[in-house]
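pls ignore typos typing on phone
fructose -6-phosphate + seq
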Amino acid sequence: MCGITGYIGTEPAGRIVHQGLKNLEYRGYDSAGIALAGETVSVYKTEGEVDELPVPAQNDVACGIGHTRWSTHGEPTETNAHPHTDCSGDVAVVHNGIIENYEELKAALRDQHIFKSDTDTEVIPHLIENHLADDVSLLTAVQRTTAQLEGSFAIAVTAAGHDGVVVAREDSPLLVGHGENATFIGSDATAFIEHTDQVTYLESGDIARLTREDIEIYNAGEPVTREIETLEWDAEAAGKSGYEHYMLKEIHEQPRALRQAISGRIDELATSVDLDIDLPAEYLRSIEEIQIVACGTSYHAGLYAKELLEAHAGVRVTVHIASEYEFGGDRDPWRTMVVAITQSGETADTLSALRNAKRAGARTLAVTNTLGSTVTRDADDTVFIRAGPEIGVAATKTFVSQVATATLLTVHLGQVRQSITSQTTTELLESLRDLPGAVQQILDREATIKDAAETYADSESFFYIGRQAGYPVALESALKLKEISYDHAEGFAAGELKHGPLALVTPETPVIALLTNASAAEKTLNNVNEVESRGAPVIGVTSDPAATSHVDTTFDIPECGPLEPVVANVALQLFAYYVADAKDRAIDKPRNLAKSVTVE
Ligand code: F6R
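k done
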């Protein structure tokens, strides 16, 4: 989704803002631009990649803002790319989010202002232009402007002859980085991560005036102070460390991510967990239902969590695609806990579902990877999955870390609700402890998976089947393949094939079967027979040597107790990666997709 960066310092801003845009590329975008502001404002734009945007080297002003655009209103053209300017060209604005009342505002401005683009954003510089005509400061002009806007936004504004940059945040995330003699702006910290780890997260309603050594923040017209926090992620963690793609690097980081997810959270004897959340035991005992809201990969982690929670925490769990969610029916909000799973913590659909549940009076818990993200501010409680920065658009390490965290939550709830036996507790926690090692063994077998991927890469349609915990992994593995290879891929509950999809199975459609522990492998083998008799080649993912004779290709995985399907998932991430690589796809930036989906 759109990204914002900015710099106010002593160095020429063009190069630094350009690099900020490069850092933000992972979010997904279709056009980009920079505005540099001194005595005049210069704007540089491209319809295409940041690399095609010239670094404005001849311009040595030390203040600039930049934007990567993921189009919502108006085509991805150079004209629609940000920054947008007012009629004089003296005010430049970059914007993430949506201005819901822009048509109304544009209609009112149209007589006196010339609009160039089809975007909702362009009303902002024209409104600022109007207010500046009253001879007020840029800060006041932006305050008056934001009071006229409805919707969600993060904006950064520069104007000729005005010192510094004014930023404003309403829902969409925005943070400020504090360097030596320099101030940075980012829609997320990757925008400036190589320059500083000292950040201030702006809150909704904040408007701030930034100069190179100062930050003044106002909310509802009153000055406010916000803490300076230290980022836990560093530039090296956010870089590619020699891997060809972030996705491959992140697949390889999974043993470490899993260790981090569980570190300090399981006691030595694997008998209890400490999640460091403030959910009173009495409340946890009173819950009748957990509703999980999430999108995409996080939704699949939610389906996996349901398997665990219903089996061991003695609670009914419903999993909702966030964009379809509404708290309702006869549910008692006091006895319903709503859990939002979101790696970015910024997914608009998930945030909207969470807010809907809050309005109904339900207690909410966020499961996220991102410190300071909007979900952590909106939810009553938060558990971090501690996967470290994930840059590749296709989620990998955050999925396994979400499932690991859901396992810890299951044990915690099960113990508080006295619905888990000590034997199951130990089985789950030992499986969790074995997971990093088991995943490492898969990574060590990467070459075999790569060979298989190259063998099957010409197929245009792939089916994934699984049962129980194998079912969400089938869905997730299919999603991974389709988003990065652009091949058709679908995941099914194995038993459902014969109720319709079997009609699509031919010798040209490989079927990938999850034949692991915790996924009723013996039953799935019946479905393997069904597809084999229609001529489909079958890849079996299994730790059971006996299953090998039933399939054409085996992805051997190590035994790993009840969480074995997570290990299978890692093998299938590699499979998806190498199928896409064989087709030379833009793996880290798949077409039409964005890392952080901040519109509904
Ligand atoms: C797929 C993928 C997406 C995200 C989804 C939700 O690989 O990454 O499906 O899982 O957009 O994102 P978060 O977890 O940030 O809410």
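Residues 246-444 form a domain with the Rossmann fold fold (CATH 3.40.50.10490). The pocket of fructose -6-phosphate is lined by residues 295-298, 342-344, 347, 350, 394-395, 479, 483, 597 (CB under 6 Å). more later
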